Amino acid sequence: MNWAEEEMQTADLGDERLNVRVAKVLERLGAHPGSSIPAACRGWAETMAAYRFFDNEKATFETVLTPHRDATLQRMECCPVVLLVQDTTEFD
């Protein structure tokens, strides 16, 4: 299981195929954070699958972000102190 599959373990988009797809999309975009969807994906079919995923009404901000939030909270449970550091550096 790769990191994206672990992160999305609790995903519930109402269809197992969407649950699998969200992990694949996350893995591709996470590996190429500054890239466009076509540049991050491996070929036309995967690019179109990503676009279809984002176009699906079940793929909402909440349904995609909730599993990530759950995984983050689970990682934090073992720590007595968690620092939530934000870098507001800007480059012109």
TrEMBL record:
The Transposase Tn5-like N-terminal domain covers which part of the protein?
A: 2-58
InterPro entries according to UniProt = RNaseH-like_sf, TN5-like_N_sf, Transposase_Tn5-like_N
- SUPFAM superfamilies for the chain: Ribonuclease H-like (SSF53098)
Q: Does the keyword Chloroplast apply?
A: no
Q: Does the keyword DNA-binding apply?
A: yes
Task: Tell me the keywords, alphabetical order.
Answer: DNA-binding
Pfam families linked to this entry: Tnp_DNA_bind
Output the Gene Ontology terms for molecular function: DNA binding
What domain of life?
Bacteria
Tell me what this protein is called: Transposase DNA-binding
Tell me the organism's taxonomic lineage: Bacteria, Pseudomonadati, Pseudomonadota, Gammaproteobacteria, Pseudomonadales
